[in-house]
Amino acid sequence: MDIYLASTHPYGPESLLTASDGRPGLGVCFLHKRYLVDPTWSGLEHASWKRWLCDFIGIREQLCLASRSNDSLSDAFKHVIKYRPEKILHVMHHSWRVQGRMIEKSAQLKAEIRNIPADSLCGKPGLPKTCTLQDTYLPYQSLREQAARFMDDSKIFPFLDIDGFGSAGDDTEKWTFLRTAFGVKGDDTAEFLVDILRWTKHHWATNLGGEPVGKARLLKVRDLYLAIATKVFKSGPATEELVS
């Protein structure tokens, strides 16, 4: 059984696992505050008392992403996925420095995280359940502009909803673990343009309801095909299968 340190951190276990706003909590154990009083004996010259409790006793400071056996996601993280989905990405980032290496070594854990439904991750309830984390894109401004250029409604494209991403002072590189570990994309490639085409077709099929496509939409698709052809020509045979 995991025992956690209580804290007010917004992505810490107490904030995420305590019942609030009509959402249920998860029954986990928090270390009693009397054990957090620094001992009077010396011998902790190189570590604080809290640090010693975490490093040598195994008290948990962060929410555990994986179970104790490391063969599945933890009940705590599953609770976040179900009841706090808007927190998932920030919880992963908050925990990654300590837990990331262990996650990356497990094909099972990576597969479970890759297959988290993307609707809540992107703030788009209308996304199909077949769209998962591995199908999403980091919301770089350049990619958003490309999507807006070619799409009738670029809001349907699966860009991750990350507060403050790309704003002044924000280090977007801290999110690269989503790309290296879980297949999230972030480059302006032929694949990105083909995905724009796929999501355009999905939007038309589910939203037009027999309405004529119209000249303006067709011109955008024509320009998109030309852009895809240009990317494929520049990239060579490696990308030809995307449009074959």
Considering the chains and any ligands shown, give keywords for the structure.
244 residues, mainly alpha, 2 domains, two-stranded parallel sheet, 10 helices, 2 strands
Kindly name the structural category. mainly alpha
| Shape summary | elongated
Radius of gyration: 22 Å
Read across the widest sheet, the strand sequence of neighbours is 1-2
**Structural domains: how many:** 2
Distance linking N and C termini: 52 Å
Q: Describe the sheet with the most strands.
A: 2 strands, parallel
Oligomer: single chain
Find the count of extended strands (DSSP E, 2+ residues).
2
Poorly predicted regions? none
Number of distinct helices: 10
Topology order in helix (H) and strand (E) letters: EHEHHHHHHHHH
Average the pLDDT over all residues and give the rounded result.
88
Helix share bin = 40-55%
Instruction: Bin the strand percentage.
Output: under 5%
Describe this structure as you would to a colleague.
This protein is mainly α. The chain has 2 domains: 3-114, no CATH class; 120-242, no CATH class. Helix content is 44%, strand content 2%. It contains 10 helices and 2 strands, in the order βαβααααααααα. The chain has helices at 13-17, 49-57, 75-83, 88-104, 107-114, 118-121, 141-150, 177-182, 190-207, 215-235; strands at residues 3-4, 29-30. It has a two-stranded parallel sheet. α1 (13-17) links the parallel β1 (3-4) and β2 (29-30). α9 packs antiparallel against α10. The radius of gyration is 22 Å and the shape is elongated. The mean pLDDT is 88.
